[in-house]
Amino acid sequence: AQKVTQAQTEISVVEKEDVTLDCVYETRDTTYYLFWYKQPPSGELVFLIRRNSFDEQNEISGRYSWNFQKSTSSFNFTITASQVVDSAVYFCALSEDGAGSYQLTFGKGTKLSVIP
Amino acid sequence: GAGVSQTPSNKVTEKGKYVELRCDPISGHTALYWYRQSLGQGPEFLIYFQGTGAADDSGLPNDRFFAVRPEGSVSTLKIQRTERGDSAVYLCASRLDRVNTEAFFGQGTRLTVV
Prior knowledge:
The complex is a heterodimer of chains A (about 120) and B (about 110).
Chain A: E1 3-5, E2 10-14, E3 19-21, E4 24-26, E5 32-39, E6 46-52, E7 59-61, E8 64-69, E9 74-79, E10 88-96, E11 105-106, E12 110-115
Parallel strand pairs in A: 2-12
Antiparallel strand pairs in A: 1-4, 3-9, 5-6, 5-10, 7-8, 8-9, 10-11, 10-12
Chain B: E1 5-7, E2 10-13, E3 19-24, E4 31-37, E5 44-50, E6 53-56, E7 65-68, E8 75-79, E9 88-95, E10 104-105, E11 109-113
Parallel strand pairs in B: 2-11
Antiparallel strand pairs in B: 1-3, 3-8, 4-5, 4-9, 5-6, 7-8, 9-10, 9-11
């Protein structure tokens, strides 16, 4: 069965600090997809990134970067030079190719607070 | 519309009552999902529609929960004989297709059963 673990429940950083959010996943499928979503206080889940299991290249988008390592089943998310607007709950999610619905299995989320 | 729309945004109901939650997906999106998010938890899958049919309802907690999508667009999640444990945020998401394209989420309906 698929599972996503986000061990960090809450993180607080001072503005401009870098912060890494950890995500560890479990799956039996060889083809799967990993996602990160941001949930600000308004409640809507905002898509950040999708990676498939065959693409281990790290990705950078502005202040955001993602480190995908199949050897450790991890898909970590780093925010560089954090800003107050980054304060939100961040969810890592997994979708297996073998599941016909491609439903998302989410971790419990990490609440990030960026203090001015 | 521009995004996934869910109504109502908030719903308070008494224990034992029936409720309906509505989801209006992005136009043209054939895949539609319902998730439930309890306080402090990640969203949990409830049901998936591809077109008009419920292709996977394995996440529905019991037979009090039911969902329809009669014309392959708007979907309604129906909860009978509500219980206090049903209190949660119910999220709807749509995808262009079931393949792993980006899923777009609505803002959710916060259901409170008193």
